Amino acid sequence: MKKIRTRYAPSPTGFLHIGGARTALFCYLFAKHYNGDFVFRLEDTDVERNVEGGEESQLNNLAWLGIIPDESPLKPNKKYAPYRQSEKLEIYQNLISDLIKKGNAYKAYDLPEEIEKQREEQEKKGIASFRYDPNWLKINESEKLKREKEKQYSIRLKLPKNKIFAWEDLVRGHIEVNSDDIGDFVILKSDGYPTYNFAVVVDDHQMEITHVLRGEEHITNTPKQLAIYEAFGWKNPEFGHLTIITNMEGKKLSKRDKTLKQFIEDYKNEGYNSEAIFNFLALLGWTSADKSEIMSREELIKKFDPARLSKSPSKFDIIKMEWFSKQYMKKVENSKLISLINSPKNKEWNELFVETYKQHAVTINELKENLKIYLNPKQNLENCIATNSVVKTFFNELKKVSFTIENIQACIDKTKDILNVKGKDLFMPIRIAATYEEHGPELAKAIYLFGKDIVFERLNKCN
Ligand code: GLU
């Protein structure tokens, strides 16, 4: 069997977005499941939209997620290089010349304003989507020559009439489009740059890509690409179009929506666990046959089955994302967490701190924030609400014993018995008086982590 090859081909126009990361992830899982190769290449011909460092950022963020391409501009396989479209302009232009020679493509001399006029006329006639009419433009030979000289032409693919372009979509099943509904389209722009549809076909063909997984916004491009494959007499890869990702209200994610963290960089900077994000993204539009949720990279690779890609939109559920992050945080080795939080305290204290706080933390930054509570203990509490019997009783008991987690716990239990209070009425006053915080992890541990001196000083103040 032919080696499976998938690819992720972003434009370096910005940072790695959740949508792109998910596409890359599915391509990666697909390739790895079948022992194939996952290729990263760049669609960087839209020079004006390229951003400085875009390529690097895409690759770095993918690497952070653990998605390491087998081939990329930085790790090229000679057989398939180059991996940046901007370095292949001559290749595209030569192939286009071949198509012109074969009669499958032609020069179209329409100026942009003439195309606009044609479009308006079609709109007036009620034609919903524009279809280029090669006979619309009426110019004489000398005008044509002038435009030829000034390179005022684009190259269009000559589509066969009334021909069905069809494919079995890996996600959606059979899709077909009639060539008459497409119209001859541009494959080389007047500036000498190929269009996306043309370049992507050449790249996929030359790189021997076997399966193309991409966002559903590309469904309308696929018949055009099939037409190009046919014009060349090349075999096309298989296609699968992933459904959109929506926000909680069911609306398509908009990059402009600032209320949601949509860039992988955001999660990296906030100290999320990359394995958790990897796992979460894999479930954005895919489910495992056994319905498991927490799965390692290896398990996901093993279980990945393209037949289980969802046909309905996937909701980006931030609550679920946090839940995943918590599950992963609990599993991280204490020593690893200690190495990440930069704590000046001793080993035993650090051990207890991370063990206690990792039970509920979502991110490393959250652990760091919690660490500050101990490194710079608050001096005063604005409202010392804790001058009540619970605190007094607890403190009385605490004074009688040595300062250990077990003894602190025993004093809390004793207070409960003596005063016959429980739940919030018991824990809240003690927590506030001893830790100066309303929330925190297991109370006895939180108190112990502050150390006897600080806790006694605080409890004294409240008495
Ligand atoms: N640069 C295109 C995109 O990011 C790639 C489309 C494709 O995979 O064919 O949407």
Automatic annotation (TrEMBL):
All residue ranges annotated as the Aminoacyl-tRNA synthetase class I anticodon-binding domain in the record: 338-461
Residues the entry annotates as binding ATP: K255
Keyword Hydrolase: no
An annotated GO BP: glutamyl-tRNA aminoacylation
Domain (Glutamyl/glutaminyl-tRNA synthetase class Ib catalytic) ranges: 3-323
Family stated for the protein in its record: Belongs to the class-I aminoacyl-tRNA synthetase family. Glutamate--tRNA ligase type 1 subfamily.
Assembly and interaction partners: Monomer.
Name of protein: Glutamate--tRNA ligase
The species this protein was found in: Metamycoplasma subdolum
Origin organism lineage: Bacteria, Bacillati, Mycoplasmatota, Mycoplasmoidales, Metamycoplasmataceae
